[in-house]
Amino acid sequence: MQELSVRHLLGIKDITAEDLQLIFETADNFKDVLNRPIKKVPSLRDITIANVFFENSTRTRLSFELAEKRLSADVINFSSSGSSVKKGETLLDTVNNILAMKVDMIVMRHSSPGAPHFLSRHIDANIVNAGDGTHEHPTQALLDSFSIREKLGEVAGKKVVIVGDILHSRVALSNIFALQKLGAEVMVCGPVTLLPKYIKELGVKVELDVRKALAWCDVANVLRIQLERQQMKYFPSLREYTLYYGIDKKMLDSLDKEIVLMHPGPINRGVELSSDAADSHHSIILNQVENGVAIRMAVLYLLASKK
Q1: Contact at 8 Å (CB) between 147 and 288?
Q2: What is the pTM of this model?
Q3: What domains are there in the chain, each with its CATH number?
Q4: Within the chain, which residues score under 50 in pLDDT?
Q5: Residue 90, annotated ligand binder?
Q6: pLDDT in tens, 131-187
Q7: Which of 52, 129, 175, 241 has its CA at a distance of 20 to 30 angstroms from the CA of residue 88?
Q8: Is 168 annotated as a binding residue?
Q9: 121 is in an annotated binding site
């Protein structure tokens, strides 16, 4: 059997194009499983996985938990809000205490960029990064690229624009790495204040006019405005942001071609996307959610075989 080139999934930056294809092919098989009447397989029956979330998450945590249970793994859920972290316990102490309970794999979300990388140097379990600060969110990028592949047949040669709050987004960075490794052309679009200074060094196109960006692309991946990560005002008001960067169905219908609309969720309806756009035939947002479980099953299964 083919295997991944890495022991941990810390970021898309660390994996190869072959790894991406292997994850997608494995996810194809698991997607078939998820559409059967009995949705469970015994693949990880002897594996214990801890979901260690130091930051709030609904969809990612549920998606991982469902993926783990579909693979018959034993699952422990840990969230920092009711834990000894509030009493001053360090990250390493917290995780070592969990590992002392004989855990094989850790799925971790943390507000500090690089936290999973730090842990991977100090502990023996496989680690999956479920989002580290404004750095990376690898499984989201995998499910996004997988959804494009499913909808359009392949990712290579496609034009993908990422619209919105690029500066605070871990989804944007992981997506840029994944799409480039798969041979897509990538553009970012948003207000200058929400684009990182280093963005051109990543080899992406930059466009400030959302209408021009939509006219260029095959796929638009629209990001949420992350007000919770913004310590200062990056634009005058949400109303003004919507006026210049909000996407609605009228705008999509005015294009002379069909484009695919994506969003990593949760959507601020009426801000970055209107409801009629989010619910239109252009949108594959619910497919992304469904594909998230298959992709996470594939990642967990492939990493478990690297023990």
Answers
A1: yes
A2: 0.94
A3: 12-136+289-304 (3.40.50.1370), 138-288 (3.40.50.1370)
A4: none
A5: no
A6: 999 899 999 999 999 999 999 999 999 999 999 999 989 999 999 999 999 999 999
A7: 129
A8: no
A9: no
